[in-house]
Amino acid sequence: MRKLAGLLACSLLAGSLLFPGTAMANEDTVVIGERLTFEEGSGPVIMDDRLMLPLRAVSEALDATVYWFNDAKRIQIVRYDSLLSLQIGNNMMGRYTISNGQANMVDNIEMDVPATIQNDRTYVPLRAISEAFNADIQWDNPNRTATVIMEPVQENDVSLKEIASMPDGTLCSTVGVISRDATTGLFYLRSLQMGANGDYDRIPLCTPTKTSISDQTAYGDYITAYWLEQLHTENPSGIVVKFTGITYAQDATTYLVVNKTTTGIRSLGYYDIYMDSLHLHYTPFENMLS
Length: 290
Prior knowledge:
Blueprint: E1 8-11, E2 17-19, E3 22-24, E4 26-32, E5 34-35, E6 45-47, E7 50-54, H1 55-61, E8 65-69, E9 74-79, E10 82-87, E11 92-99, E12 102-110, E13 116-118, E14 121-125, H2 126-132, E15 136-140, E16 145-149, H3 160-163, E17 171-180, E18 187-190, E19 202-206, H4 219-231, E20 239-250, E21 253-257, E22 264-270, H5 271-277
C-alpha cells in the first residue's frame, strides 16, 4: 500500500503567541506529499497541545472538498464517499457516508479542540480530521514530527460515456472539462477527447432546488455561487475537473448532481494546458464553445 496520498511532517516548535494556549508552528517543516505553502499569517498553530492547520490546506492535501455555510458558521468536508460536518467552536463533529444517493449519519466524534477562526481563516485539528478519514497518525516525539498515512479510497472511476447509462443515485468519479450551453445557459461536463463516433460525450450538471438559500433556489443562482466558492469564477468553462458525486436520472437523461453534501470537485487546470501536459491531441477549447 502506498504511504500517503499525504506524508505530513510537522515541527511543533513554539513561536510567537497568537492567543492564550496557541503558538505558531514552524510552517517550513509542514509537508503533505509535497511542501505546503501558506499565506502570510496563516501557517499551522498549536492550540492546547493540538496541531491546527488551515482548513483548506489540510483538506486539499487529503484530496477533499470544503464547503462553508456562513450563517451557521458550519463546515462540510467531502472526500468521495465520506462527509464530515463541523461547526466553529463546537467540539462535536458529525461523520457521514455517502451512499444510496445521499449522506447517511455514521456517528458523532468528540474533538479535543474545536474548529476555530483566527485572522479570518478557519483552523481545524489535524488529528481529528485525518482519523475521521481513516488515516493513521504516527507521532515521533523526539523529533516532534507527525506522519499521516492515508488509506487509499477505492473510487468508482468511470468515463462520461459510462455515466450516461448509470441508474439514479450512483456514486462515481470522473474527469471532464466544464462547458456551458450558449443557448440554455446550462453547464455540463464534456469528455476530454472525441469518441469513436467523432463527437464528445456530455453529461449535464443539475443543482438542488431546496437548499439553505431557499425552498426554490434557481439553478443559475446556486451554480454561480458554487463556482465562485470552489473555482473562483462565475463561469468556469474550460476548466478540467475531477468530479466525484452522485447521478440523477430523469426522463431518459442522466445528470451529475452539484451540491454541498455529495459533491467533490478539484480543478486540474485549464483544458489546453492540461491536454498539453498529457501530450494528447485536442482542439483548442475556445474553438469548441457551443
